[in-house]
Amino acid sequence: MTVLPILEIGHPTLRERARELTAEELAAPETQRLIDEMIETMRDAAGAGLATNQIGRPLRIAVAEVDHNRRYPYKPPIPLTVFVNPVIEPLDDELVAINEGCLSVPDLRGEVRRHVSVRVSYLDRDGGEHDEVKRGLTAGTFQHEVDHLDGVLFCDRADPRTLATWEQFERFHRDAFVERITEFAERVGS
Fold first, then answer.
1. Looking at 22-176, which runs of residues are DSSP E strands?
2. Which pLDDT tens digit goes with each residue over 108-138?
């Protein structure tokens, strides 16, 4: 398997809206290989998710997985999920401020207000249809990746007053954020 280079902020492909795939394109061996490489790349970089825009392929495919992630130890587990042609629909107006980072925006974090409950409709890598409700930090992860597929980076949505390098976040803000987000996660169940 190949670990792919991850594009960084400033690369024009990160600002493109990814195009949907047909069933034939999804089933193609090269697409299935691309999905495997995305999973390997995400895991190698310790990301919670990765969208195709981030590797220079503006197709509507993203992957997510959280399993004892060293970058996000407070996130609840997300089983490996491949989501193709995803559509997100907020289920209510409740929002939560999540301190996010991004593999394509290295060494920067900031608070983004995300919907607490969303419905995510997508195809899996085999073309199976899914219609699921995601809540809490998991909902935030899915919104972050779909934003990528729409050409939006987390820093576009972040409150600029909350932007910090990883070092300064760890030094001054991490403990308060983890305490707040842990209480939130316990309340909403994810």
1. 49-51, 61-66, 78-90, 95-102, 105-115, 117-123, 129-135
2. 999 999 999 999 999 999 999 999 999 999 9
Which residues face 29 on adjacent strands?
A: none
What mean pLDDT is predicted for residues 141-151?
98
pTM attached to this predicted model: 0.95
**Which residues carry out catalysis?**
145
Reduced to 3 states (helix: H, G, I; strand: E, B; else coil), residue 124 is coil
Residues 15-60: tens digit of each pLDDT: 999 999 999 999 999 999 999 999 999 999 999 999 999 999 999 9
Task: Please give the class, per CATH, of domain 12-188.
Answer: alpha beta
User: Domain residues of the chain, as ranges?
Assistant: 12-188
Burial class of residue 36 in the structure, from the number of CB atoms within 10 Å of its CB (0-12 exposed, 13-18 middle, 19+ buried): middle
**Extended strands (E) in the chain:** 49-51, 61-66, 78-90, 95-102, 105-115, 117-123, 129-135
